[in-house]
Each structure stands twice: as C-alpha cells, then as structure tokens.
Amino acid sequence: MKIHFLGTSGWFDTHETGNTMCTLVETGEAYIVFDIGFGVHKLDQYIKDDKPIYFFISHFHLDHVCGFHVMPKFKFRQKAIFVYQDDPSSKAAFKNLTAQPFCAPPELYKFPVEVVTVKPGGYTKPIKFECLSLNHINPCLGYRIYVEDKVITYCSDTAPCENDIRLAQGADILLHECAMSPGKADMDWGHSDPEGAAGVAKKAGVKKLVLTHFSANGYGSSAKRKTGTKIAKRIFPNTVMARDGLTVKI
C-alpha cells in the first residue's frame, strides 16, 4: 500500500511548497482520495487501472474542494464515489460548488459518479471506515479507514480534540494537519500546531505521524516546514513531513 501526497498546503498554493490538499491512498482493491484541493490535478498520473475511486471530503473550505474545477479533465473508466458529511450546509455547498457557474456538474464528467452522504459513525460501504466531527469552525469530518489489515486516519482541519484522538487510536498511520506555526494552535477557528498534532499521535498510540496541510502563510518555505516537523519529533519521534510528490509505503 502506498500513500501519495499530491497537495500538502493549506489555504493557497505556493511556488515553493506546492498545491492545496489532496492525498491518494493506493491499495490493492481501490484508490482512496482524501480531499480535492488543486493537488488533485495530478491524480491521473497515479491511477493506472480500473480499481474504484473513493473521494472522502473533510469539509467545504475551498482549499479542500477547489479541485472539483479539474474533474472534467479526467477520463477514468471506473466509477468514482464522493463521500461527504450529511448536514444542510455541506449538502448546499456540494450542490452549489458542483454546478455552473463555479464548476461543471458531475453529469458532465467523463466517468460515472455516485454521491454518498454520511453522518458521524461507522460504515462498511463503499469500504470499511469511521468518521467523526472535528474541532473546526465549519462542519468537518475526520476519517478512519480500514484497508488491507491497516488503519489509516486522516484529520484535517482540526484543533486537537477528543474525536481526533478517537479516530487515531492505534492507527498504523495518522495524516494530521499542521496549519499553525509552533506554539500557535488556534482553538477558535480549529487548527493544530506541530506540538498539538504530535500530542494527538502520542496519546492515540499511532505508529507513524505524517504532518500535512501546512498553512501557506505560516509555512511558506520547506525550511519552515522542517522546523515545525523537528519540534513535533521531540514529542513523537516517528514523525514525517509531507511534501508534494512524497510517497510513503505502509
């Protein structure tokens, strides 16, 4: 199993640090995509066969969904299933975003599409997963995916919280946001700093932590990302810094 980081920036793209959020998990049975920022434009470089594609959307801030604009370029043969939170604001956001004048609607995509809405809880379709609400200013889900005897947890965007730790409990890998600079966690808007993300990993007993969603204004260079990662490693040593183009095997 491989995890490809196609976009790792929060808020906006930068020349040095790359695109907004999109993470691809490549398994033997499916392609699992977390969020649809502009990093998604690289997706067809990795999808080479007809395994189903599952898109799990955390929330509808634009750095996580602006890549819907790119969808008409793909010519996948298989069905893609889009999963997002079943609440009025998310439903309205999905409907408005995936329609003119913002984007081409799904019926114009060059591949078949299914849309699934979920509430916090556990599911067995389209794959086995759990989702819980995170500590963010707008409705946002974190995901815990069970695949090939591994547990992958994705939490972005959020400040450290109880559900954050629950989703990460004993996970093989935790993909966690690191939007805020060291020592500057934002509990009101709902974002983590390196210390907070590492603290979640430690409390949850995960095997590996990957920091992603580095805010473009606070982490405008690779050097700043490396500094943040170094601070996180003091709390949780098995921490990796995500960057666009990174592939992690588990």
Walkthrough of the structure:
It is a single chain. The chain is an alpha/beta fold and 250 residues long. It has a single domain (2-249), classed as 4-Layer Sandwich (Metallo-beta-lactamase, Chain A). Helix content is 18%, strand content 28%. The chain is built from five helices and 16 strands. A seven-stranded mixed beta sheet has the order 7-6-5-4-3-1-16, with no helix packed on it. It has a seven-stranded mixed beta sheet with strand order 8-9-10-11-12-13-15, with helices on one face. Strands 2-14 form a two-stranded parallel sheet. A hairpin with a 5-residue loop joins strand 8 (121-123) and strand 9 (129-133). Helix 4 (194-204) packs parallel to helix 5 (222-235). It starts with a strand and ends with a strand. The model has no long low-confidence stretch (mean pLDDT 97).
